[in-house]
Amino acid sequence: MSRYIFYHVEDLDNYIIRFFEKLGVSHADAAIASDVLLAADLRGVESHGLIRLHTYYGSRLQNGTIDPASPISIVKETPATLLLDGGKGLGQVVAHTAMTRAIEKAEQTGVAIVSVRNSNHYGIAGYYAMMALPHDMIGISFTNAQPLVAPTHGRTPLLGTNPIAVAVPSATQRPFVLDMATSIVPIGKITVYDKAKKEIPAGWGIDKSGEVTQSPAEVLNGGALLPLGGTELLRGYKGYGLAMMVDIFSGVLSGAAFGGDVGRPRENKGANVGHFFAAIKIDAFRPLDEFKQDMDALLLQMKNAPKAGGEERIYIHGEKEFELAEYHRQQGVPLMDEVVKSLKEAGEKIGVEFNLHPMSEKEGSEL
Amino acid sequence: MSRYIFYHVEDLDNYIIRFFEKLGVSHADAAIASDVLLAADLRGVESHGLIRLHTYYGSRLQNGTIDPASPISIVKETPATLLLDGGKGLGQVVAHTAMTRAIEKAEQTGVAIVSVRNSNHYGIAGYYAMMALPHDMIGISFTNAQPLVAPTHGRTPLLGTNPIAVAVPSATQRPFVLDMATSIVPIGKITVYDKAKKEIPAGWGIDKSGEVTQSPAEVLNGGALLPLGGTELLRGYKGYGLAMMVDIFSGVLSGAAFGGDVGRPRENKGANVGHFFAAIKIDAFRPLDEFKQDMDALLLQMKNAPKAGGEERIYIHGEKEFELAEYHRQQGVPLMDEVVKSLKEAGEKIGVEFNLHPMSEKEGSEL
């Protein structure tokens, strides 16, 4: 069990912006980075939220492996395609710029794709895919990441958890927002089980010899995560293939690092993370209202379908996260007490006091 | 065990073309459809090859649910986007036309996407993705399909095995060709186990109440396939999300059928299958030789990585299939004796004799 402390989202936003500004980030860029980080905590993806403010972004801004100016430059551009160099900038700022450009270009050309080199961890992939929604476009966002996943028949981590995010607007239903790691679980999930001294389900990870293990410590110490699908019997090579696809679009197409060479957060060098974004203008294909009505029909087919024994609800991708975000906007964003402690310490060191008033506190399980 | 009879690929090609021509298909279109069907058998994807020549294509050409003229028409077009109506044509002909157009357009615009409505089963998705390779492009191919897969927490089939195919050129290595159903296994795999009276591995499918079952008969009779990932514990909702993504791009974006409404092969009505294709010109981003060298490096990172205990080889996606295709081109394409029998019967009925000389015969297991 952990203790969770709930803070008002606007208070946290203010704090994060001040934190980034103190480390040399402009107000506008700090606001973007804060919005992406908070979106993760709001949506219940704690592993990609404030827990990383100091441990990843702050420490890398301080050691110079992230450039606070995020000096993004154009490497190559055509009306429908764009290759950006992120200039070792903040991943969120680089990705926000890239997706903004993808949307602007797709407004003209119907479809546009943007690949990005020389960036850093960009937070939740779904944030950028969702940027397309107010423009009545389909949004796509991929990124490669530090190696944690073993290829099928391998035993060492050579691929990131390389997420795939796709956001699609609908009429009266919430939009479809798929935002999935191509591994079964993120590494943070293994860490949580390790701390709780609990066994992990068979299939999530392997030990250093490549055997499936239920020991989280064996996964963390020389083992690896398994790709979606798990073992060969359940077709884990498909998850391995999806992770490769994301790496090709993000790393190889852009000229960023790829495979086992993507920088690990703890390494004191540029990570050279690669991203990929796409925007598709729906009315380049069909009248928007027809498309949205059909999206509603598809989503309702799933939601209204007969349930398996013991199940009460079939979810659409993103639905749980939208509901959680609404709840957290009203009731506060939950942060583990140890996250709050490290935020306070990190803030003190650079002279940005974490003096926020909690809305409430609660015990809860991370498992 | 089944008996396999091996035929020369050119003899089979001749027969298939004559078969299609007899049913009113032009020589050029018959040659395309034959090439796609044979690509499946050559690559070891028997379920999508000659086994369907009569059972799917022939029977539907005869009952009028496939139009032998494949009267494809443009619904909407911009420089980088295209929506086609397949005119109830042969899926292979429609898809070949669509991917050809995607490649032509991407030559001009760097990226192009084509969505297709009113088509039929198009064979292996990877065929069309691979069409991009000689043009030094990345190719993408999706299709929706008859409902066989249950959404997570559901118990009825509402989504197709909706494949994702992505082909990427490299320098000295074979290209990366991911061609994967978004279910764990195709329905044909369950049928094979049912015929062999063998249990299926836990996770492949569910019975009519939504419980995981090892009985292939229970999956076939009122049950459903599970999406990649399987149960919720191993994140089957990600496979469910990928199947939805494919259906949105193929069915909803094009205005084809989607979800549970995609036509089943045995229904005597137009299937209204939807497809999606994309082509990305690599040198719109990076010099081609740099990209291809990096692809080699990524593929070799995987292939040369330390192996899990008991494993001798890490495969790249498509590698096994390329090797099989080369072997089958030399040694003959294997057809199960019962497939040969049904081809002979179907041919006799329409006056196209299956009088090919086998190269060899062999006993083999389908499991």
Walk me through this protein's architecture.
The structure is a homodimer of 367-residue chains. Helix content of chain A is 38%, strand content 17%. Chain A has 367 residues and is of the alpha+beta class. Chain A has a domain at 1-62 and 332-367: Hypothetical Oxidoreductase Yiak, Chain: A, domain 1, CATH 1.10.1530. Chain A has a 7-stranded mixed beta sheet with strand order 2-3-4-10-5-6-7, sandwiched between helices. A 3-stranded antiparallel beta sheet of chain A has the order 11-1-12. In chain A, strand 6 and strand 7 (176-180) form a beta hairpin. In chain A, helix 1 crosses helix 2 and helix 2 (27-42) crosses helix 4. Chain A starts with a strand and ends with a strand. Chains A and B meet through strand 4, strand 6, strand 7, helix 8 and helix 9 of A and strand 4, strand 6, strand 7, helix 8 and helix 9 of B.
